[in-house]
Recover the amino acids of this structure.
């Protein structure tokens, strides 16, 4: 694991950023979740990319994000999840650059916080500990992701990764993954969220959401379970990704995303599935904004594109801009 | 089965009703399903009611419905469905008056069409045939309901009832039941609907809807299956019922209605569950109106109260008025 850049000046929750010089700290960003956060998720370049290629990808990414008022950038840690699903992966798995390395070496122009995913099973403990030690706690958070299946061989388990954080770097904010589809199957995802919160998770990010009902049920159960236990609920960030083709739809399903039958029909029969899914993502955002505000649950959205097709990436940028507008609009 | 009143003057689809003298025929009403139908469902008085009591109940019912612009009245045929569910029925089962008898003898002041349910298993063939022979095909439709479980002993099966109609009274419009919860379990309710349509069903009425997503998936699959087969889809009427208490919620669940977890939480934690469910029924209506109009599927709503509590019945009348407003509003 590479060394990360040295911390930039701290500006805590009491000193919100203003102007271009003072970028908001991560804690300040998470404190804004009552109003609704906007994150943008990207996948690092392929592991085989040269430094020049990675710089160029970073430059293009920052140019895309420049007009957007995004609270934080999410950097995924891609793992070979072929154990997740015996079916053929609709898009091939390609190893990618370490997200922390891409952030530290190439995304130096990004002044806002970054949220770096860690598929913890990939990393032996010393490597994870090194990263924890060097992480800039003001400008960075982690999201710890467990194994994609129970049978997978791992270097570090999810509970052990959380323990390492507590031992090594308790001031680093980490988030956890929340999966509405698991809630539909077992009605217990809110209990997993509570267990992760107990281990130190300060926020949650969902996998891609196409089943709004399941998402509402998961956060509703989480909200009432927190209330019952006298705990403050942590922000829940819903991931939105457009779907511009039947191949992307197949990939979403391969990833474990449940697409309601009516929506799958609409995408399959649409003249323009990208436009259809874009409208659906907006409808999802509207419904979840209303729902979370009514519950009083801190929340946000993470907009990404699960495919690397230009049309879908452009649509995700446009979607993020529209979601920002929805979040900024005063509640009706 | 009693004789029914003699037919009133016919006014077919080409001659819409206007003024108070000419009431619309049933065919005309069903022809309006592209815009959206509004039905109101009631349960006949107890079988033990005297003629005077039944007259008084009919008078109160008509007074309640008078300000509403309801397209047709739905009269349920209540069956002992204790075979459906081994759990105790939250509201006791009480035998009720035959809906056709209540309609013919007591609801004489109702000038619009009536839709009379028939739990066909309750009736020996000759009794069902007598009713079919005497039914006023202009002012009345039937809805044939099959057994509430596979193990129930029946006098007449659903396919046999449909055959009897074709033999005896092919000009009587009959509808069928459509159950989104079955679609969630087996993904095949649309095929059952197509089979019923083949046997002669001219419309469908759902059981009470609290799971909008499942309802959308059912009618989406039905719509595309019709399109694939070159069939005209028949109107699908969604039943809405408010829920004013946890006992009513328990009864809805006993009846087989799936209430999404987030909605159950909202009802359980609401200061006023009746107001909460009322708003939810309206949101359901809005969403299904938009969805069906976009698909181009003829549709409607049937508003009822599964409980006989006055507050819930009053709320269902008010809900029907609001749904009428939603249906009359030009599409955005």
């Amino acid at each position: 694991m590479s060394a990360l850049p040295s911390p930039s000046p701290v500006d805590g929750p009491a000193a919100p950023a203003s102007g271009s010089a003072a970028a908001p700290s991560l804690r300040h960003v998470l404190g804004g979740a009552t109003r609704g956060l906007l994150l943008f998720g990207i996948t690092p370049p392929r592991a085989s990319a040269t430094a020049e290629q990675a710089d160029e990808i970073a430059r293009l990414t920052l140019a895309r994000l420049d007009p957007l008022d995004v609270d934080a950038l999410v950097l995924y840690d891609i793992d070979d999840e072929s154990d997740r699903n015996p079916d053929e992966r609709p898009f091939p798995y390609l190893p990618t650059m370490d997200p922390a390395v891409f952030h530290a070496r190439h995304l130096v122009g990004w002044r806002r916080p970054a949220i770096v995913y860690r598929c913890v099973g990939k990393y032996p403990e010393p490597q994870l500990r090194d990263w924890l030690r060097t992480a800039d706690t003001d400008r960075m958070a982690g999201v710890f992701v467990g194994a994609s299946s129970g049978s997978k061989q791992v270097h570090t388990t999810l509970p052990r990764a959380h323990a390492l954080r507590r031992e090594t770097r308790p001031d680093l904010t980490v988030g956890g993954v929340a999966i509405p589809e698991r809630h539909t199957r077992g009605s217990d995802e809110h209990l997993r969220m509570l267990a992760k919160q107990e281990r130190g998770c300060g926020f949650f990010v969902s996998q891609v959401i196409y089943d709004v009902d399941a998402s509402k049920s998961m956060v509703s159960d989480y909200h009432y379970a927190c209330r019952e236990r006298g705990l403050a609920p942590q922000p829940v960030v819903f991931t939105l990704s457009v779907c511009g083709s039947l191949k992307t739809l197949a990939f979403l399903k391969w990833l474990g995303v449940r697409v309601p039958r009516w929506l799958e029909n609409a995408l399959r029969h649409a003249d323009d599935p990208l436009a259809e899914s874009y409208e659906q993502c907006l409808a999802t955002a509207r419904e979840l904004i209303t729902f979370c505000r009514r519950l009083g649950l801190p929340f946000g959205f993470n907009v990404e594109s699960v495919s690397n097709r230009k049309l879908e990436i452009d649509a995700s940028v446009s979607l993020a801009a529209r979601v920002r507008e929805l979040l900024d609009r005063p509640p009706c």
The radius of gyration of chain B is 19 Å. DSSP finds twelve helices and eight strands in chain B.
